[in-house]
Fold:
Amino acid sequence: MATSPHTHLLQNPNHLLKSPTTHNNAFPVTSVRTMSNTSGRSISIKCVAPTTTPTQDRPYVPTQSQDRVFNFAAGPATLPENVLRKAQSELYDWRGCGMSVMEMSHRGKEFLSIIQKAEADLRTLLDIPEEYAVLFLQGGATTQFAAIPLNLVNPDDPVDYLVTGSWGDKAFKEAQKYSKAKVIWSGKSEKYTKIPSFDALEQSPDAKYLHICANETIHGVEFKDYPTPKNPNGVLIADMSSNFCSKPVDVSKFGVIYAGAQKNVGPAGVTIVIIRKDLIGNVQGVTPVMLDYKIQSENNSLYNTPPCFCIYMCGLVFEDLLEQGGLKEVEKKNKKKAEILYNAIDESNGFYRCPVEKSVRSLMNVPFTLEKSELEAEFIKEAAKEKMVQLKGHRSVGGMRASIYNAMPLAGVEKLEAFMKDFQVRHA
Ligand SMILES: Cc1ncc(COP(=O)(O)O)c(C=O)c1O
Structure:
């Protein structure tokens, strides 16, 4: 691989961070390094100290350990390093109870305190109104594609789907089995790069709900605002799997929000459903017991054995997000990270391209292609050598995709930006 002015930095992303001398009070200082590339343009690389305050019970956490990669995977995705370390420190013996979370009864007081705290913290984070239930379920967001129509409508009821990417399309196909589902708009012919103007939508007047995928993980298309169902008795339903807790959301605009945890809030295995309580209780007769929101809600998500460890991990992530100052602060960081990558793409004179219309570009998943597509494999290979992994685009669209969920540190995005510029200099 040819070297360039960025090579040293790429190989030593954290070399400017001071080592802590104690565990309690010596976080690394923020440091800025300015370098110039071969075209003479300055590039600042900033190594940023963690934003959480160290506490006695929380181990010291560096910005990014030298032994960890920057993982740009779409999900399962990178988790906050301090959350992983906290889980590690509690793994063997959870808070002196003599066993790990994986071993304890889901009906015991220890686990009840874990799930109740996770729910309370999520309610605080998203400011979830009292009239909404929070469920921790299994089966992934894919199971919700069926559970939604099964719980909310009869087989002959009309429901609308606004399809802005592959996940919305999958949700629609599943809903067809249990309702009279209709696609009222699809971005497929334009390769899922747009969201339509809401005024132009031809919603069914009596649709029981309007379903959207708030962030299309594969195509990188994100709603910045939400449509209102035309039917005054209809509700808006959103699959928020890939932008859940990445920004504040007015929950009261929705009948149901659901999200698989494994992108922004935890490991794969738990799916969070936030549902307005008056929508619960009208389930279709054929619905399996596990998909019945009434049963799950009456049993506080403990009808059967829940994914205990996953719920515990989500709880740690929620605590971490609250410690960061809540979702407004988290959104600011996410905007900054996304801006860095989109600017790198837009300022590359066409060397990199993002096909998504600018106004609806995702803050979470940044898809891009190379003008010289024959270089894409080389890009991914070289990035991996620099410890930036999982940058390959989804197999259905190709190119590259950088998923930069909440837990992706700014340093990871800056390192990718520096790498993109360096790669361009060497291959333009
Ligand atoms: C937006 C969205 N919805 C649904 C799914 C399916 O989630 P699961 O694999 O948890 O069923 C995914 C998975 O990546 C997704 O990104």
Residues 75, 140-142, 167, 213, 217, 239, 241-242, 260 surround pyridoxal-5'-phosphate (CB under 6 Å).
